[in-house]
TrEMBL record:
Residue ranges constituting the 4'-phosphopantetheinyl transferase N-terminal domain according to the UniProt record: 15-96
Domain 4'-phosphopantetheinyl transferase: 101-204
Record flagged with keyword Metal-binding: yes
Organism placement in taxonomy: Bacteria, Bacillati, Bacillota, Negativicutes, Selenomonadales
Keywords per UniProt: Magnesium, Metal-binding, Transferase
UniProt name for this protein: 4'-phosphopantetheinyl transferase sfp
Cofactor (UniProt): Mg(2+)
A Pfam entry, by short name: ACPS
MF terms in GO: transferase activity
E.C. numbers: 2.7.8.-
Enzyme class: transferase
InterPro entries: 4-PPantetheinyl_Trfase_dom (IPR008278), 4-PPantetheinyl_Trfase_dom_sf (IPR037143), AASDHPPT_N (IPR055066), P-Pant_transferase_sf (IPR050559), Ppantetheine-prot_Trfase_dom (IPR004568)
């Protein structure tokens, strides 16, 4: 498994010269986003995926054509055993690449939190525990659970059809995390990272066979490397 992280140091409007490196459909969708910062993050995420695919599969950028499943998750029809996922928040864009279904999420930790939002993300069991914590600990707990669940949902590839509150994360006896879906155990391997104190990254790999180990650290990449 490969986990990459890119910290943005560009101005919001700097994305425009790089739109031709994307397929026309994707460039048009990005152009429809309201906020220039969202366009920049989306372009950089796309470039990160394309550069990594080109390097790992030894193909040219123009040979990369994405298909999507019924829930909108992209995949490579010509390389069914190659899985990838991206996420972005604040100044970080991250990507995960593996030979099994994989999901990744990055979140910028916000120190104010709405109870209604917490109730939508946390399972009843998790919500009870969350309410017992002091504010700072509660915020850290919420964002940890949120990123882990998002990585799992994205690995499954069914989008919003999975309610985060239907999932419960527990620590097993060996210190690993397991995900329960409506009480049923789901196989997966999780890994967490903190590129900065106010950011959290979680990666989830799924499969019935032996899962690839996630790297101990994310690999930091730079924008200039995506254009080589």
């Amino acid at each position: 498994m490969k986990v990459l992280a890119l910290k943005l140091d560009l101005k919001a409007d700097d994305y425009r010269p790089f739109l031709p490196l994307l397929c026309r459909e994707r460039a048009n969708r990005i152009g429809d986003l309201r906020q220039p910062a969202d366009r920049l993050r989306s372009v950089c995420g796309e470039l990160l995926v394309r550069k990594t695919i080109a390097d790992l599969l030894h193909i040219e950028n123009q040979e990369i054509h994405f298909s999507t499943n019924q829930y909108g998750k992209p995949y490579l029809s010509f390389a069914p055993d190659f899985h990838f996922n991206i996420s972005h928040s604040g100044c970080w864009v991250v990507g995960a690449f593996a030979n099994v279904p994989v999901g990744i999420d990055v979140e910028q930790v916000q120190r104010t939190l709405d109870l209604a939002v917490a109730a939508m993300v946390l399972s009843p069991e998790e919500f009870v525990y969350y309410q017992q914590l002091e504010h700072e600990a509660a915020v850290d707990y919420f964002f940890r659970i949120w990123t882990l669940k998002e990585s799992f949902v994205k690995a499954v590839g069914k989008g919003l059809s999975i309610e985060p509150s239907s999932l419960t994360l527990r620590t097993t006896g060996d210190g690993l995390l397991e995900c329960l879906t409506d009480g049923r155990r789901s196989g997966g391997r999780f890994r967490e990272y903190k590129p900065e104190p106010n950011y959290r990254i979680a990666v989830c790999a799924l499969g019935e066979t032996v899962l690839p180990p996630a790297p101990e650290y994310v690999t930091i990449t730079y924008f200039e490397q995506l254009l080589v």
